[in-house]
Amino acid sequence: MNLSRIAIHESVEKAFPASLLAESLSDLDVSVERVENDAEFDSGDAVAAFGPGTGFLDADWVHCIRAGYDEFDVSAYEEAGVALTNSTGIHGTTIGETVAGMLLAFARGLHVYRDAQNRGEWTRLPYERPFTLEDERICVVGLGTLGQGIVERANGLGMNVVGVRRSGDPVDGVEEVYTPDRLVDAIADARFVALATPLTEETEGLVGTSEFEAMREDAYLVNVARGPVADEEALIAALRDDEIAGAGLDVFADEPLPEESPLWEFEQVVATPHVGAMTNEYHHDIAGLIRENAERVSRNEEMLNRVV
């Protein structure tokens, strides 16, 4: 691959201003340009984009500015001989802090008080409702970068941490690691179940009716993975039937979350619009990955985070 141009696709605007990424990469020895949807690509081009786009398979390399690349047709990239890289490995802190915020909100009732503030009401939760996170059990499903970011902060809050990992190999800060076939055992006694696994054929619908039935009635689901990792209809049913206490959701089966979704109606749901990894420094993080790979390409070395 002889890299001659890095094209910053307008789709990155979903995450940050394209101009900021262009400025962060301006020191590279190749041309850096902002392009729109109708742009054409050729050999020597690299494209930085939020998701798949028209003409991308004519380039030599496409970089997804997100960790999740499930929207990309991996087979098509393989057939076309186009390199595809993603942005895994940089979201541990942001996702970890987002989950910590949700845990604290549920434990201390902060979301309820904010709702009351918006209504101009001075109210308190029932005495039995607030609790502390210390010594509560959290099961983190998926112990990659996102999961380990959650683990670190859960330990800082004094929680008991267990996890689920495909290999079952131990992870620092996790008391016990279960394999996916023991998911029900892992979540059965947890106050919180945090989903942080990639979306694959194996993880789609990983948490459904059986899992919600296995969870404690005072347990909360937190999903910062991908919406389809949890069966949304089963989740709604579990919330309506008080099988679980609530849910913190940053991802959904359909995004934006449709206006008619019942998830808007539950006080015990904290919903954020897929912003768990957002930070005003995100463009610098992405620039670092692109710069590293541009340098590796120039040295004919293996690319970082290469999916295809």
From TrEMBL:
Transmembrane segments: none annotated. GO terms for molecular function: NAD binding; oxidoreductase activity, acting on the CH-OH group of donors, NAD or NADP as acceptor. It comes from the Archaea. Residues 101-276 form the D-isomer specific 2-hydroxyacid dehydrogenase NAD-binding domain. InterPro entries: D-isomer_2_OHA_DH_cat_dom, D-isomer_DH_NAD-bd, Dhydh_Halo, NAD(P)-bd_dom_sf. Residues 61-307 form the D-isomer specific 2-hydroxyacid dehydrogenase catalytic domain. NCBIfam families: Dhydh_Halo. This is Hydroxyacid dehydrogenase. It comes from Haloprofundus marisrubri. The lineage of its organism: Archaea, Methanobacteriati, Methanobacteriota, Stenosarchaea group, Halobacteria.
